[in-house]
Write a structure and sequence with these properties.
heterodimer, A: 244 residues, alpha/beta, Rossmann fold, six-stranded mixed beta sheet, four-stranded antiparallel beta sheet, 24% strand, globular, B: mainly alpha, two-stranded antiparallel ribbon, 15 helices, 1% strand
């Protein structure tokens, strides 16, 4: 469904993402992990059309999409959420979600109906009338998810929807995401919460210093020495083996 | 839905009262003041669409008014085309100017104070141009003759102009009501609240902003024709006066940005304050000082405008558009 080929992004002298290839097939939940500053969000921003790429090409259902605007990419069925939540602060939860629904309907009643359906899925029904600026962190993360879902995406790009949540909230959102996948939506997510990554993903990609260093099932990734070193420092994998 | 029904009832009620006002008030002075209030409310509403709903503040809104005024007046004086057709050309001229300014500035990503200043620069540029070219009558200005009749959009009595302005004002409120209920309105508000998120959710933000400034331009164009036919004289300082640019944003901010009735309420309050101030102290330019003080007080203590006092459920925090404007633009 999504194919990233040789994508590179340079900011001046810094290569944030260096010839990354990856693929997400329909119906999968694929995660992108890596230490802070690895280039995960930069890669997402390029995939969703917020940043231009220096090299490479991105295909959505075999259609090249590099250079398209975010709103065009959204219309093609791929939508992103933001790591730092970006609510429409002056509006209610309902109005926030309706903006997403308006991407495919122009009737206010239809948009409202869609928004209410989506609110039900993410468990925000009781918060529909609240102002978006009065939501808790967990509420805002859900709102990001709800707005994106209201656009009827085929592929959801979730950028750390679990950061800042407590374990109960994480469990809740994990089951919400699984539920979304069961409705036929493909999910590509960036995540730091390892429990969730292990629990959710069919496959993972690991990015470090802008390069992909590993790919595989979560269990394979967790044992990969390169991954351990990327997170814990050079030599860490060897020490772990010695210690055990 | 309750709120909307209340709005509609309020609208109908005030429309009926205002429609019958000339039957009871015969004083030319009060009719003129009301006419001017409607005119200001109308032009304030045009600013409100781009500034209040879409969150793009402009300091040069007068450019559409002036261009519309010149368009219909030149057609009348040079080509004998009656203003009833001229106003249509004025509307298109305003929309076209809106497209040009919008395309140039929004495409290059100007927002916040940068966009506001660019509109001011455009208005000033047009004022200088109007002063220096021949067909506008240059600094001498254009004199229109008084020939009452519908085709000239001129009326024997002030009551005719009263209804003309009333009609414009009602149309502007209908446009705002449509924005409140439509997808386009929701998209403008989304852009105001968070442009990046709006773009991510499939909104063509560039296109929406250009449409908004074109609507503003079209409305301003019609206002120009109204003004020229009422006052029968046009020169560059009148057509492109900063005073009017300020007034249209002022009535909207005072009344309540991004609300249907904000500009109308603001226009009522400011004109009444202005008339009182003029009667108490007869100093030219005093109104500007009074306006300045009112603006400071409103932004500091009533950021949601006078209408914000009556909306209990509305959050009391500063509107996002004001916050963004004064804090510079936070670009992620």
């Amino acid at each position: 469904m999504l194919r990233v080929e040789g994508v590179t992004k340079r900011f001046g002298g810094l290569t944030a993402v260096s010839s990354v290839d990856l693929e997400v097939a329909g119906g999968e939940i694929v995660s992108l992990i890596g230490p802070n500053g690895a280039g995960k969000t930069t890669l997402f921003a390029m995939v969703a059309g917020f940043l231009t790429l220096n090299e490479g090409e991105i295909f959505l259902n075999d259609m090249p999409i590099a250079g398209k605007k975010p709103h065009q990419i959204c219309k093609l069925g791929m939508v992103r959420t933001f790591q730092i939540t970006q609510p429409f602060a002056g509006l209610t939860t309902l109005q926030n979600i309706m903006v997403g629904a308006y991407s495919h309907t122009d009737g206010p009643l239809k948009a409202q109906q869609k928004a209410e359906e989506v609110a039900e899925i993410v468990g925000m029904t009781s918060l529909l009338a609240s102002g978006a600026d009065s939501l808790t962190v967990a509420g805002r993360k859900r709102l990001e998810l709800a707005r994106a879902l209201a656009t009827n995406p085929k592929l959801l790009l979730l950028d750390e929807v679990m950061a800042g949540l407590n374990p109960t909230e994480i469990d809740e959102i994990v089951s919400v995401i699984k539920g979304i996948r069961d409705t036929g939506v493909t999910i590509f997510l960036i995540e730091h919460v390892m429990k969730a990554v292990m629990n959710l993903s069919d496959r993972s990609y690991v990015l470090n210093d802008g390069k992909l260093i590993a790919t595989g099932t979560p269990a394979e990734i967790a044992e990969n020495p390169l991954v351990i070193e990327a997170y814990l420092g050079h030599g860490a994998a060897g020490e772990m083996v010695d210690a055990s | 839905m309750m709120a909307l029904n209340r709005q509609v009832i309020l609208l109908l009620l005030s429309a009926i009262i205002l429609a019958f006002v000339p039957a009871f008030i015969t004083s030319k002075f009060y009719i003129d003041v009301l006419t001017l209030i409607f005119f200001t409310a109308y032009i304030g509403q045009s600013w409100n669409i781009l500034g209040g709903y879409a969150g793009q503040f402009s300091f040069g809104g007068v450019m559409f008014f002036g261009t519309g005024a010149y368009a219909s007046s030149i057609l009348l004086t040079s080509f004998g085309i009656p203003p009833i057709f001229g106003i249509i050309v004025a509307i298109f001229a305003g929309a076209l100017l809106g497209f040009i300014v919008g395309y140039m500035s929004f495409r290059s990503g100007l927002k916040g104070s940068y966009f506001a200043l660019i509109t001011l620069a455009f208005a000033e540029l047009l004022r200088v141009l109007a002063n220096s070219v021949e067909f506008t009558g240059g600094g001498v200005g254009l004199f229109l003759t008084f020939a009452p009749g519908l085709s000239n959009l001129q009326f024997k009595t002030p009551i005719g102009f009263y209804y003309f302005a009333f009609l414009l004002m009602v149309i502007s409120i209908l446009i705002a009501l449509w924005l409140e209920r439509s997808r386009f309105g929701a998209q403008l508000v989304a852009i105001r609240e968070n442009e990046e998120a709006a773009e991510a959710l499939g909104i063509n933000t560039l296109k929406c902003k250009i449409y908004a400034i074109m609507i503003m331009g079209a409305m301003g164009g019609a206002a120009g024709t109204f003004y020229a036919q009422k006052y029968l004289y046009l020169d560059p300082p009148i057509a492109y006066s900063i005073h009017l640019s300020v007034e249209m944003l002022l009535v909207t901010i005072v009344g309540g940005m991004g609300t249907v009735f904000g500009p109308l309420i603001g226009a009522f309050v400011l004109h009444i304050v202005n008339e009182i101030a003029r009667h108490l102290i007869d100093t030219p330019g005093l109104s500007l000082i009074v306006y300045g003080v009112i603006l400071i007080v409103i932004i500091s203590y009533l950021p949601n405008g006078l209408i914000g006092m009556f909306k209990k459920k509305m959050n009391k925090s500063k509107p996002t558009a004001l916050k963004n404007f004064f804090s510079g633009d936070k670009d992620a």
